[in-house]
């Protein structure tokens, strides 16, 4: 495999062990090792997942002499918010996080009238090397731990519950793994984090699996592994081109798994789960937005359980890649619909706050 397509993250110090890294059985074993009764694990989990509380000093149902020890061992601080920046009257909030080792990554909260969506990162950086993506141009620093992924959700959910986000108190309804990183290149930790996010309290946060979307550029063996999990999460495939010649350039992993192979895996996922697959397609001016490519995409997708999300490209500073002209965007939509393909244009939130993931981290560094 070419060096630029290597998926392994560089070896670095591991994040501290956290409650969210552990299954319920592992939590009970961990508290027992600390000399505590096994039921203390459920108490900790109820506070963290149920009450969104990470400070054991505030857990008054725990023995006073045990709180600090349990906190240090199972609820160490994982993430520090470097900054929050907002737009859309505060309804969109981007957070830059710093981990224990100084690496930076981002999440984005988006409030809509009918839902609250959090976009989370699964890696610090990304190794997929897509040239139009800010994260891809920074390379891969390391995988995030399960705890670091879940703590993005818990931290933001806490702010929402406490009314610290515009729009008043609320709850997260949807999680999308579309932040920094390729989720399926960090498969085990992403899968474990999905379970923590969706398991009922106190096992997890109790968010519906049907409210979770996992994206991928098309790692076919990992898609097949996900199929075998029999989850009800939505699969989103970042396609960006319907032909191999262009996709080899835009999404370099296409040199391993071609468009046909990626779409076949997507149809297997839809057939097994009954869930409609999302095709993510960033419209890039004069690159992939031609009418003939819309027709080719429509031919590939017609008759399948699929929906296309067209994404007006969030341009990055100094990049030659930019968003399509409005008239080309409209024609692309018209041609997909003519093939009977369901399509929407994604709400372009966050452009004024470096909405494309990776831009804020790059600016900070």
TrEMBL record:
SUPFAM superfamilies named in the record: Radical SAM enzymes
Keyword S-adenosyl-L-methionine: yes
Binding positions for S-adenosyl-L-methionine per the UniProt entry: 181-182, 215, 238-240, 314
EC top class named in words: transferase
Cofactor(s) it depends on: [4Fe-4S] cluster
Swiss-Prot/TrEMBL catalytic activity: adenosine(2503) in 23S rRNA + 2 reduced [2Fe-2S]-[ferredoxin] + 2 S-adenosyl-L-methionine = 2-methyladenosine(2503) in 23S rRNA + 5'-deoxyadenosine + L-methionine + 2 oxidized [2Fe-2S]-[ferredoxin] + S-adenosyl-L-homocysteine; adenosine(37) in tRNA + 2 reduced [2Fe-2S]-[ferredoxin] + 2 S-adenosyl-L-methionine = 2-methyladenosine(37) in tRNA + 5'-deoxyadenosine + L-methionine + 2 oxidized [2Fe-2S]-[ferredoxin] + S-adenosyl-L-homocysteine
Binding site for [4Fe-4S] cluster: 126, 130, 133
Subcellular compartments: Cytoplasm
Cofactor binding summary note: Binds 1 [4Fe-4S] cluster. The cluster is coordinated with 3 cysteines and an exchangeable S-adenosyl-L-methionine.
GO cellular component: cytoplasm
Catalytic residues identified in the record: 106 (proton acceptor), 357 (s-methylcysteine intermediate)
Keyword field: 4Fe-4S, Cytoplasm, Disulfide bond, Iron, Iron-sulfur, Metal-binding, Methyltransferase, rRNA processing, S-adenosyl-L-methionine, Transferase, tRNA processing
Boundaries of every Radical SAM core domain copy: 112-352
Pfam families reported in the protein's UniProt record: Radical_SAM, RlmN_N
GO BP annotations listed: rRNA base methylation; tRNA methylation
EC number assigned by the record: 2.1.1.192
Main location: cytoplasm
Family named by the database record: Belongs to the radical SAM superfamily. RlmN family.
Functional note: Specifically methylates position 2 of adenine 2503 in 23S rRNA and position 2 of adenine 37 in tRNAs.
Further facts: Reaction proceeds by a ping-pong mechanism involving intermediate methylation of a conserved cysteine residue.
NCBIfam families in the record: rRNA_mod_RlmN (TIGR00048)
The protein's name: Probable dual-specificity RNA methyltransferase RlmN
Source organism (scientific name): Marinitenerispora sediminis
């Amino acid at each position: 495999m070419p060096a630029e397509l290597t998926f392994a993250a560089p070896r670095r110090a591991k994040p501290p062990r956290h409650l969210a890294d552990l299954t319920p059985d592992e939590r009970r074993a961990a508290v027992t090792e600390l000399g505590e009764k096994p039921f203390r694990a459920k108490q900790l989990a109820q506070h963290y997942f149920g009450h969104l509380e990470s400070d054991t000093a505030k857990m008054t149902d725990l023995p006073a002499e045990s709180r600090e020890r349990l906190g240090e061992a199972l609820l160490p601080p994982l993430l520090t918010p470097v900054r929050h920046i907002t737009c859309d009257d505060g309804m969109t909030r981007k957070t830059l996080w710093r981990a224990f080792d100084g690496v930076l990554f981002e999440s984005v909260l988006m409030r809509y009238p009918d839902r609250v969506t959090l976009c989370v990162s699964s890696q610090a950086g990304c190794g997929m090397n897509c040239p139009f993506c800010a994260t891809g141009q920074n390379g891969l620093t390391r995988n995030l731990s399960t705890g670091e992924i879940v703590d993005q959700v818990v931290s933001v959910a806490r702010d929402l519950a406490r009314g610290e986000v515009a729009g008043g108190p609320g709850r997260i309804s949807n999680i999308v793994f579309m932040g920094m990183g390729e989720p399926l290149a960090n498969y085990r930790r992403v899968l474990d984090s999905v379970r923590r996010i969706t398991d009922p309290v106190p096992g997890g946060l109790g968010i519906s699996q049907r409210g979770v979307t996992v994206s991928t550029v098309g790692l076919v063996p990992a898609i097949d592994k996900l199929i075998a999990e029999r989850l009800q999460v939505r699969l989103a495939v970042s396609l960006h081109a319907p032909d191999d010649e262009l996709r080899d350039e835009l999404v370099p992993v296409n040199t391993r798994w071609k468009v046909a192979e990626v779409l076949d895996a997507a149809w297997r996922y839809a057939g097994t789960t009954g869930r409609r697959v999302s095709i993510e397609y960033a419209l890039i001016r004069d690159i992939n937005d031609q009418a003939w490519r819309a027709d080719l995409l429509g031919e590939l997708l017609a008759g399948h359980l699929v929906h296309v999300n067209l994404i007006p490209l969030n341009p990055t500073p100094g990049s030659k890649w930019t968003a399509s002209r409005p008239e080309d965007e409209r024609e692309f939509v018209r041609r997909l619909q003519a093939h009977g393909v369901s399509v929407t244009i994604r709400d372009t939130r966050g452009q004024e706050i470096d909405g494309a993931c990776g831009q804020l981290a790059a600016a900070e560094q």
